[in-house]
Structures are given as C-alpha cells and as structure tokens.
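INSTRUCTION: Work out how this chain folds

Fields: amino acid sequence; protein backbone structure tokens

Chain under study, with its fold:
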Amino acid sequence: MTGEQHLSNVSFLTVSEVAEVMRVSKMTVYRLVHSGELPAVQFGRSYRVPASAVEGYLRTARVDGSAETA
C-alpha cells in the first residue's frame, strides 16, 4: 500500500480472546507479547493483538522444534 494504511479493516483481539483461540493461558499470551513473538498494541494497561498476527503466528507454529510441511 502506498501512503496511509486503512486501519478500519484491522480486527483486534483481547489477551483473553487470544488465549481462548490458541487454547493457552493468558500468561502465555502475555509472555509471547512481551518477548516480541506476538505483536500487540498497548492501550493504557491493556493489550490488543491484531487477529492477523494470531493467524500468522499459528500458521508458522512449530511442533517439537521442527517446521511442519503441508
């Protein structure tokens, strides 16, 4: 995209929602956010994670340290 991005199409999830989708604890999501593995935006003390970031993270997830092939 050139110039201004269209953020109206961006969907954000709360930490609780991400934890539910990924079937992990909220603490695990916070660890991923703080380590930089999962991008997030901070609003005050709350974090919001772009849905596309969650999808991308899950797409590239590894099992037993090796990449899955489709």
Summary: Helices lie at 15-22, 26-35, 51-59.
